[in-house]
Specification:
Largest sheet: 5 strands, mixed, barrel
Radius of gyration: 16 Å
Number of domains: 1
Distance between the termini: 24 Å
CATH architecture: 3-Layer(aba) Sandwich
CATH topology: Rossmann fold
Order of helices and strands: EHEEEHEEHEHEHEHEHH
Helix content: 25-40%
Length: 235
């Protein structure tokens, strides 16, 4: 057990998929895992461990934002010896991406000070695990899934007063925005573990297009399968 997680150490697998929403963990567990067991319910952060084919997998929600992701991924790496975390979630597109497009994150740029205070990391951009990303890219080819590979903006503020997204997209070559990847990548670097982020486009800043909550859940299926199949190739 750790400060915010009530699970026994042996209940958490070495590879963890992290949606933001606890309900999404439940959805994935019931649809894709065999013999899923609830392993955490502290603060309603319902996590499940089960089997995808032959591989033991834990689904653990991150909550919203870098601080929440920072807490849970830190404790999973430090107290549960998790080796690989794949964040699976949604994003807003800053560029000409279509709804339901899949993005594998190469680097995360941020406006957050999380890295400064968590590990004295003074740069506002950090990369995902190249090793883990390579596995995901190769798996996407095997599944014949077209995915986009590029940078993401991990913002600490959902309702930014002035969001000059065109300038951010141009300067930092980001494809869009989400709120959790930077903290995840910082913690992975801190503990010398692997972390990647897979995102589905749920809305666009270029127009008014957006998915409903139901469409988000259904649209994520290809992304979920990609993450799960990638897990099978990890040591």
């Amino acid at each position: 057990m750790s400060t915010h997680i009530e699970s026994k150490k042996e209940s958490i697998s070495q590879t963890v998929l992290m949606p933001g929403d606890p309900k999404r963990c439940e959805y994935i567990a019931k649809k894709y895992l065999s013999n899923p067991i609830l392993v955490n319910d502290v603060r309603g952060m319902t996590a499940y461990t089960g089997f995808y084919k032959s591989r033991k997998i834990t689904l653990f929600p991150s909550g919203m934002g870098n601080p929440s992701m920072g807490i849970y991924s830190y404790e999973l790496f430090k107290d549960y010896d998790v080796q690989n975390i794949i964040r699976i979630g949604t994003m807003g597109a800053y560029t000409n991406l279509s709804l339901k497009d899949i993005v594998l994150v190469e680097n995360s740029f941020t406006n957050s000070n999380y890295g400064v205070y968590a590990s004295a990391y003074n740069t506002n951009m950090i990369g995902a695990s190249q090793t883990l990303n390579k596995v995901i890219l190769n798996t996407s080819k095997e599944l014949k899934l077209n995915i986009n590979y590029g940078n993401i903006y991990s913002s600490d503020v959902f309702y930014e007063k002035e969001n000059n997204y065109k300038s951010i997209a141009s300067k930092y070559r980001v494809l869009g925005v989400e709120m959790e990847s930077f903290a995840l990548f910082i913690n992975a670097a801190l503990f010398k573990r692997n972390a990647s982020t897979l995102l589905m486009v749920s809305d666009s800043f270029l127009n008014a297009d957006k998915l409903s909550q139901e469409e988000r859940e259904q649209g994520l299926d290809n992304l979920i399968i990609l993450a799960l199949e990638s897990c099978l190739k990890l040591q």
